[in-house]
Amino acid sequence: MSTGVSIAGVGEAEELGVVPGKTALQMHAEAAAGALEHANLALPDIDALFTCGLDFMPSLLVCEYLGIAPRYSSSNSIGGSSFVAHVHEAVLAISAGACEVALITHGETRRSNRGRGVSPRPAHDDPWLPDWQWERIYGVASPPSAYALAAARHMHEYGTTSEQLAEIAVSTRHWASLNPRALYRDPITVEDVLSSPWVVYPFHQLDCCLVTDAGGAVVLTTVDRARGLGVPVVEVLGSAVAHTHHMISQMPDLTETPARVSGDAAYARAGIRPEDVDVAELYDSFTYTVLAELEDLGFFAKGEGGDFVTGQRTAPGGDFPLNTSGGGLSYTHPGMFGIFLLIEAVRQLRGDCGARQVPDAEVALVNGMGGYLSSSATAILART
Amino acid sequence: MIAERIPQPAVSPSPDAEPFWEAVRRGELQLPYCRACAGFFFYPRALCPGCGVRDLEWRRVSGRARLYSFCIHHKSGLPGFREAVPFVTVLVVLEEGPRMMSFLTGVDADPAMIRCEMPLEVTFAELDSGEVLPVFRPAGPSS
Questions:
Q1: What is the residue range of B138's domain?
Q2: Distance of alpha carbon A375 from its chain centroid, rounded?
């Protein structure tokens, strides 16, 4: 099956990593230009824009900077999964005739903003907000603590070990070693992960994603229009979004993420099963995030994740290509990673990946995870 | 009150949670109770998140709980927390059903000493600011 919508092009900002000399909006614009070139399209073709993560009215800000006034725009913001959710929204909008060519952009300079004393996002500083009143008072004010609570419960229920979580960091770094744009490319071992400093038990430093400066963009249009552009056609076979909570204390079951719901819906729309996926790009804010997504997306049963990732099965040369860019753990992660999952999946399907190319990749699954395991967006893509 | 040094957060009661914090200052744990569902919920809000009905009252709970999950903070960027690392943050499930976040006290910040499902009981910690914070400790033999 297909939605009738395709991703026609993808692009990254010119520089990724530690880029103190560029603004977040420059990152948006560079990535947008790259994605349009990749799609054989131009800025005036854009009639919808999706973005978030910047200021109070992100789509207005980015549209003005790009010099466009599209007939549709959205700033839907559900955490790091947002940009995959934007694909779902763009498919709906294009299918409804609300637009024909949709641009999704992301740019953040969280790494270098530290040096400027600038908060990259709207301030979230009302002490009456539930997370301030019920979680921040107990030290949980950022993702590492929240994901650590979920990981510790998974370890209790299923016997998952720190060594098994470390396997994910090791295989992801191996993929990053094949990506010239990855921030960290030197190989690491399970022992390196376990001997890196504690951040918050059960996470060591190397269980946690990077904080970088980066930008990315994706262009979507109808499959019919894409076929006339002279570029490989990557169709969105199915997509779905789900969310269950905002604060980690309100998560219905700490060991089951909303990827269970978004994944099932996306598979049903795409008409495929987990075993049909050739390459998986799963949000890796933490090693544990990947383990939970693998289970909830049905690649194996709940609780079997630890055994599955043991022995570097997800590394280059293994039988399950996973996070082939080097992921948020080793390639880049400017605070939200969803757009980069899409970029890598499309490049794999178009055969653009050089040393890290997965042979004969025809079907890719992308899963974004946002907030405190709060929101999940799944997109299943195929080269057709 | 416990003597152990814990982090010093700023407590900031919202209007819809004021009865919770008033009770805590008296050394009681009170939660919102939905008469329509005949059950407790947490956190406090303007309607029952289980059924949407607003037929609510405040009731005292036992303070007995089990540890649902935990994490051990080895660093923190929060004011009042940096000096207190390592400290243990827990999610507890109260005997009456609702789940809440808290600190674990009376146990070393060592994963070998902490296990999910261990029985806990509420206690009340007075902060330097004079505010009182509900925290949990291993349940005593009498409870």
A1: 62-143
A2: 12
